[in-house]
Amino acid sequence: MTNIDELKSTGLKATLPRLKILEIFQKGTQRHMTAEDVFRVLLEERSDVGLATVYRVLTQFEQAGLLMRSNFESGKAVYELDQGQHHDHFVCTQCGKVEEFYDAEIEKRQQAIAKTKGWLVHDHAMALYGECALCVAKQAVCERSEQC
Questions:
Q1: pTM of the predicted model, to two decimals?
Q2: Which residues make Cβ contacts (< 8 Å) with residue 69, sequence separation at least 6?
Q3: Are 90 and 128 in contact, with CB atoms under 8 Å apart?
């Protein structure tokens, strides 16, 4: 299915800004992006798409089920393609990097806890906050050299 067909199947017209933004998520190396991240990529590509349009398209894509939005402690919405598979997130409190993970044992444990409490879980989101490996390594170098 082409991007044009994908947009049409959700009831959205295949406008140039929508096609460009969808392509950024499909072909980009960064899976989790804020509106500002998307806008920055568009600027690098010399696209004439404004930030307000980016926000509007991201909201439309979320409503159409193309993107999922997460709100981490940074206060900024982070978007990713909705590929229908549940996963949880690590969020770096230093650089803002977001990394996905899935662990079947954690999922089973959550269901077991919910069952013992009498809950029926329909959905959940888990985010673990800390420092990514790159930030930990940078901090170690800084501590050794005292130049940061």
A1: 0.80
A2: 58, 62, 77, 78, 79
A3: yes
Helix (H, G, I), strand (E, B) or coil at 48: coil
pLDDT digits (tens, 9 = 90+) for 43-79: 999 999 999 999 999 999 999 999 999 998 777 899 9
- E runs forming strands in the chain: 67-71, 77-81, 88-92, 98-101, 127-130
Residue 2's nearest CA partner among 21, 22, 17, 29 is 22
CA distance 82 to 52: 22
C-alpha closest to that of 3 among 59, 70, 18, 78: 18
Nearest to 83 by CA among 99, 67, 72: 67
> 8-29 burial string, b = 16+ CB within 10 Å, else e?
eeeebeeeebbbbbbebbeeee
